[in-house]
Amino acid sequence: MELLPIIKALSDETRLRILNLLKFGDLCVCEIEVLLDINQSNASRHLNKLTNAKLVEYYKVNKYVYYKIKEDILKEHPFVKEIIDSEIINLKVCESDLTKLKKYKQSGLSCDDLKEGKICLN
């Protein structure tokens, strides 16, 4: 795998925030939008860059697209795992993101609920 696209993908705060959330499990695009308080276009653009850098991969379940961290990348480039596991959390905004993720997971709500605007995580 090429190193430069990986480093470029890791150079953006929003993409680091996405990776921070994905280290706790797969998430749908709509979940990422709500958790990071970004619009669909912005989420898709950042997820596309992460996918092109081979940091994440996706799969579809019905009408939803879920993303997850590619395990191969963590084995091939241990520095990526180090950044995801140890460094990203040092960004203050990532603490807030994880609080929202925890609230969301405990709520029992689904992607359908998010699309209907049934949750406020702030």
UniProtKB/TrEMBL annotation:
Record keywords: DNA-binding, Transcription, Transcription regulation
SUPFAM superfamilies in the cross-refs: Winged helix' DNA-binding domain
Molecular function via GO: DNA binding; DNA-binding transcription factor activity
Top-level division of the source organism's lineage: Bacteria
Keyword DNA-binding part of the UniProt annotation: yes
Pfam families for the chain: HTH_5 (PF01022)
CDD domains found in the cross-reference section: HTH_ARSR
Keyword ATP-binding in record: no
Domain (HTH arsR-type): residue spans on this chain: 1-95
Name of the protein in its database record: Transcriptional regulator, ArsR family
